[in-house]
Amino acid sequence: MTNKPDERFSSTRCCVDVFIRLWRDEQGFVVTMELVLIATILVIGLIAGLTALRDAVVSELTDVARSVQEMNQSYQTSGVAGTSASTAGSGYSDHDDPGADHCIVMFGPIGE
């Protein structure tokens, strides 16, 4: 019987040794700091861009909501009379909803 070390522990030890060598290595420190600064600037720019995108989407959806709110669904049909049949007219008058002028105000009054 040979004294063969367990392969699991030897590979773990190898990984630990590599990690310790990388932790103590300072040759790439300047490059790493530059990458951290570049990544930070990119993240700040990304946050600003996403904020502008959010505001534009909210503005467009507000316009759509105001358009739907201003739709007038009133209609009127007149009756038809023939020789043996007739129909009565029909109609519906759409009124403003109570409080509709204050329903969807996110950025100020309409037309701003």
How would you describe this protein?
The structure is a single chain. The protein is mainly alpha-helical and 112 residues long. The chain has a domain at 29-68. 54% of the residues lie in helices and 9% in strands. The protein has 2 helices and 4 strands, in the order ααββββ. The chain has helices at residues 7-24, 29-70, and strands spanning 75-77, 80-81, 86-87, 90-92. The strands form 2 sheets. A two-stranded antiparallel sheet has the order 1-4. β2 and β3 form a beta hairpin. The chain is rod-shaped, with a radius of gyration of 36 Å. The termini are far apart. Residues 79-91 have a biased composition (Low complexity). The chain crosses the membrane at residues 29-53. Keywords: Membrane, Transmembrane, Transmembrane helix.
Key descriptive features of the protein:
single chain; mainly alpha; two-stranded antiparallel ribbon; membrane; transmembrane; transmembrane helix
Query: What average pLDDT do the residues reach?
Result: 77
Radius of gyration: 36 Å
Order of helices and strands: HHEEEE
Number of strands: 4
Percent of residues in beta strands: 5-15%
What's the arrangement of strands in the largest beta sheet? 1-4
Biased composition (Low complexity): 79-91
Region (Disordered): 79-98
Keywords: Membrane, Transmembrane, Transmembrane helix
Transmembrane segments: 29-53
